[in-house]
């Protein structure tokens, strides 16, 4: 048995280890401690309840076909042309010359587009949130149905048990009456 | 000099909140203006703390802001944008993998916290850890100016009697084993239960186990623990939930041994509290536990339920061994009694002065 404890210098750890070893061996020799007992305790795992978010949603594929596919990331922006050297410099100057005119021509369109995009961007979380909320509601409903079904089954079992108990009581009452009738008077 | 503090959460009975309060009171006693700014706070502290977004009114380049860092949160961003001198006190962040199966949000916050810690390196004037273990983590994360500010340990709060009801219920001479701390996965309560199961099965059938601590947010973990207790057929395991200090003291004073098998600790205050209360401590060597125990108590290097149970039995049945353990614990505690946390903080703050 390896030394598995540390303590202050004035405590004899080896002596404690020997005592622990002795105690365990004594119990094993007396048949009070079985290896299977020890293994059972050490091997017993925690079994947490399933996480709500991990419960598979059986209605999802039917109710929301392609929901997850539609949440694809936004498409990447196209990259600008990669001109090089003299051509690059030339294009830069041309663009700089035309910039005020281009800006003047595109400004109203740009502003309108930007406003629309901003409006849409504001709506995206609301739409996503609502769809998530509806999904959660469906999930909750699904779980409620499962629980209600379980309760119904339990109720049926309890009713049956009650009927059995009633029969038993009736039988015992009959038996008691029969015994009272046949027993001699005091 | 004004010294203010930032916190993510100010909970009731929480060690970080208590430390922030102690620091504020100490600074005020030194005539230093000091306020606490936080994101969340317990209703009983309303009026004593402020929302962290209010700090704009107090901010000035001559001020020093101390940020108690223990989890990822929006407070970090706000703290980084300040022009004031910045100090962090690192209380350690539990590795996120402990929470993956039980609390997704906390797992995410802990993961984010570790990333934020790296982002803080190089942007603060001083980084303090509440143990040498935490200071080393700061150094590894890239902080240059680091130091240790020991956690404020106020042992006087334990000087109160056992509640009569508790004495009646549990003070009947049966052995009581104790664990104090939140019921969260990194504390490995399942290992405590396994060791206790072996102890009750093979050494003392009448023993009890007190698991004293809050489990809010970890109901699934609690139910799994209760399932384990049922599956092992262990009796007399008491989950107290979050209880007032008077009840914690009652549980502790009626306990005969403290068993701590956590796998991650940045400091581990309950061990020192048990040292103070004269309860023999058996703890697993993880994180800052060995450093905090300072040579007192019994430190384990492995977790074999049967051997831990046998060790507990040795301690509880041999008065001489128990007495030498308690003497060692009392010696270990001296270091914490002598520490003047306020004075050490002031020395650190003076180092920051231009």
Number of strands of chain A: 1
Main sheet of chain A, how many strands, which sense, barrel? Answer: none
Structure annotation, total helices of chain A: 4
Order of helices and strands of chain A: EHHHH
The number of strands of chain B is 13
Element-level helix/strand string of chain B: EHEEEHEHEHEHEHEHEHEHEHEHHH
Give the overall shape of chain B, derived from the CA principal axes.
globular
Report the largest inter-chain contact: A-B, 29 and 43 residues
> What Rg of chain A, in angstroms, do the CA atoms define?
40 Å
> Strand portion of chain B, in percent?
15-25%
Shape call of chain A: flat
Helix content of chain A: 55-70%
CA-to-CA gap between the ends of chain B?
12 Å
The major beta sheet of chain B can be summarized as: 7 strands, parallel
**Low-confidence segments of chain B:** none
What is the average of the pLDDT values of chain B? 91
Q: Helical region count of chain B?
A: 13
* Helical content band of chain B: 40-55%
- Sheet/helix structural class of chain A: mainly alpha
Overall residue-averaged pLDDT value of chain A: 81
- Strand order within the widest beta sheet of chain B: 3-2-1-4-5-6-7
Task: Considering the chains and any ligands shown, give keywords for the structure.
heterodimer, A: 186 residues, mainly alpha, 4 helices, 1% strand, flat, B: 354 residues, alpha/beta, six-stranded parallel beta sheet, 43% helix, globular
Structure, explained:
The complex is a heterodimer of chains A (186) and B (354). Chain A has helices spanning 13-29, 35-43, 60-63, 85-182, and one strand at 5-6. By secondary structure, chain A is mainly α. The two termini of chain A are 75 Å apart. Chain B is an alpha/beta fold and 354 residues long. A seven-stranded parallel beta sheet of chain B has the order 3-2-1-4-5-6-7, sandwiched between helices. Chain B has a six-stranded parallel beta sheet with strand order 10-9-8-11-12-13, sandwiched between helices. Chain B is globular, with a radius of gyration of 21 Å. The chains are: A mainly alpha (186), B alpha/beta (354). Chain A binds chain B through residues 1-2, 4-8, 10-11, 16, 19-20, 23-24, 27, 32-33, 37-38, 40-42, 44, 46-49, 51, 53, and chain B through 101-102, 104, 190, 194, 197-198, 201-203, 220-221, 223-225, 227-228, 231-232, 285, 290, 295-302, 304-307, 310-311, 313-314, 321, 324-325, 327-328, 331. Strand 1 of chain A pairs antiparallel with strand 13 of chain B, so a sheet runs across the interface.
